[in-house]
Amino acid sequence: MKIAVMGTGYVGLVAGTCFAELGNDVVCIDVDVAKVEALRNGIIPIYEPGLEDLVKRNVREERLSFTTDAGPAIERAQAVFIAVGTPSSHDGSADLRYVCAVAEVIGKHLRAADTVVICKSTVPIGTNFKVKEIVARFATVPFHVVSNPEFLKEGAAVDDFMKPDRIVVGAEADVARRTMDELYAPLVRTGAPIIHMDIPSAEMTKYAANAMLATRISFMNEIANLCERVGADVHNVRRGIGTDKRIGTAFLFPGVGYGGSCFPKDVRALQKTGREHGIDLQVVDAVERVNDEQKKVMFEQVSTCFGGQLAGVNIAVWGLAFKAQTDDMREAPSIVIIEALLAAGAVVSAFDPQSAHTAHAVFGDRIRYARTPYDVLTGARALLIITDWHEFRTPDWQRVKGAMGSSPVVFDGRNLYEREKLTGLGFGYYAIGRGKNPA
Fold it and tell me: By C-alpha distance, which of 170, 21, 179, 16 is closest to 84?
């Protein structure tokens, strides 16, 4: 099938590349000339495991191409995906200017009857009907609009696309449903369902899914904070509730709060939609409040440990990205934590396997960026684990201790380690909900 993808951000690049891998003829379109040229040369603007090899292979085999010229790509396409950003506006609503702009471009260049315009961008309920209205102002042939939200996890996006839990399709016409069934047929041979529904329900499904996952994270963070006060171990609590089939184990790991491009933005957009329709989404409101407070917990632990006197204290940080297997710094908990440390006068050195360049756009030269996890430790009085990259899971603790200053302290924001082991080696140890931390 001939496919055009409007946007080469996270969603557009992954979707376009994976559709090409399935044998389709895909053209990805972006207005950024430098980005398009880089992609043509196999230079990927994001870190996503497995994606670079797929892009290079499919460009080489001429199934995938990149352009700034939308017209020819849309004119030949049987399916046109909208995959542009919908960032948060100042009031929490999704900014739809890019969606509306590409809808106009699509309308001006549609040539084939029954072309399916597919919105993969995360958009508020009712947006696909707005897209339909905009395209219709310019289109001279019949077309169909479909809501097809993505459910990709950063760090596992290629696998998520190729091995989906489900595919959600919101459509009004049978011809559009048939096109979507054809597109996704290679991915559902193992039984993953294509769930057909109306368009507003498909739009709501995306927000409801992300809000539910964010809710589980905030809930477990609240439980972890209570465990801290009462001397319980949230690790045991998590196992105790996660084995209940009604609950399950996913997204029950407490930590320093969620971040990224999806959960914060989508929770706020859902809140805004609720307010617009006279509904106070109290649970969703609480999810955001808890997450905002959770990002402050690690700094409060550090401040307490050092008696509120952090001026000139050397702090080492492992992990800057909002999660492992990505270089994404959007709304990363590390930003809140490090900004608080810097404001208190601490001297911060940090290591992250992938996000030094994106972190530099946030912090500039106010922190030092190390090339290895051990380079940050020299003279540090505290080590903060913020992102749970695999290489942080079994460090050489004797080497760590030898590099750090006297009375080293570890602040384990991901509960990767065991208190008894580290205290036995001479470290002070703070965790998230693993029993009472030191006073």
Answer: 16
